[in-house]
Amino acid sequence: MQEKQKELFDQYDMELLHVRRGRGGLVCETTDGSYDLQVCRYSPKRLEQAFQIKEELVGQGFDHIDQYVRNKEDELLTYDRYQTAYIMKRHFDGRECDIRSRQDIRKASGCLGRLHHCLRNLPLDGYPEKRNQFPQKSRELLRTRQYIAKKNEKKEFEKLFYRYFSLFWKEIENRMEEISFVPALCHGSYHQHHLIILPNGQAAVIQFENFYVGNQLDDLFYLMRKALEKNQYSLSYAETILDGYEEEHKLNQNDYRYLYRLLAYPEKYWKLANQYMNHSKSFLSPKLTEKLMEEVSLQEKKKYFLRQFRLNYL
C-alpha cells in the first residue's frame, strides 16, 4: 500500500483488508463491507446536504444508494498531505447499466420512479433550485451562430454548424415558455453511467452530488434522451422507459406535454455548441465534427419518433 493511501485510510475508523483500483478511485475492502475512495470536487455544504438526502432515502427503504462514510473527525471530506480532498462512499459490486438493453433501461426507469416517489416526501428548504433553461440555451445557440458568421475562414465544424442551424432552430421556436410543475428534489444526473446493475438484478444509484430542486421529469428526460440517441430514436425504447417509470410513479397529460417539448429540443446540438464555445478555437477536435454529423443524420428518425410520440401520448 502506498504511504499516501495509508495516511488517508488511517483517518477512518475501519479495518482495511484489501485495496484495488475501481472506477474513478480506489475500492476499499474492509471488515464492514466495500467502499469507494474518490477525489472530491464538491463543497462541504453540498456534501452535507446530499448526505442528509441520502439518509432520508435510506429511512424510506431506498437503500441502494452510495451513502458517504464520515472519518474519525466526523467530517465527510478527508485530505491527503497535498490537501487534495477525498470522500468515502458505499461501493456496489455490479456492472454499469447497458443503455442498449431494454431490460436494463426498464430497471433504470423503475428505479427512477421509486427514487422520485421517495424524494417527493422530503422538504425543499435550503437546496439549490433549477428552472427552465430553454431561453438561456437558445440565446447561447444564437450567440454561437453570430460568432461563427463573423469568421472569414471557417473550420469544418463551424461550416456544418452554420449550414444546419435552421434545421435545429425549427425545433426551438415556441418552446421557450415556462410549464407549471410541482417542485421536488431531482437526482440531477440520472443516466447509464450512474446506475449499477447488481448481481441480483436490482439497480443502485450513484453520484447524487448534482441534485437540485426542480421538475423531476428532467431526470426522466435525461435517461430517455441517452437511450434514444443510442437506439436510433426507436419509440419502443421510449415506451419501455415510460412503462417502467409509471409502474412506480404515474404521469399525467401535462407531464407528457413537458416531456415532448424536452425531447423535441435540440439538446445535443446545444451541447456541441457549448463545447465549441468553451474550448480553444485554434484546434477543434475531429470528434466534435463527427458528433455533429451523427446528430444531423439522426434528425429524420427523430422527427418520425416525435410524430409517433404525439400520436401515442398526446
Q: What is the count of helical runs?
A: 12
Task: Give helix and strand order, one letter per element, not per position.
Answer: HEEEHEEEEHHHHEEEEHHHHHH
Indicate the low-confidence ranges by residue numbers.
none
Strand percentage, roughly? 5-15%
* Oligomeric state of this protein: single chain
Taking all residues together, what is the mean pLDDT?
A: 93
Distance, first to last CA: 59 Å
What can you tell me about this protein's structure?
There is one protein chain. This protein is an alpha+beta fold and 314 residues long. 46% of the residues lie in helices and 14% in strands. The strands form three sheets. Strands 1, 2, 3, 4, 5 and 6 form a six-stranded antiparallel β-sheet that branches. The protein has a three-stranded antiparallel β-sheet with strand order 7-9-10, with helices on one face. A hairpin with a 5-residue loop joins β5 (77-79) and β6 (85-90). The chain is globular, with a radius of gyration of 22 Å.
Q: What key attributes describe this structure?
A:
314 residues; 14% strand; 11 strands
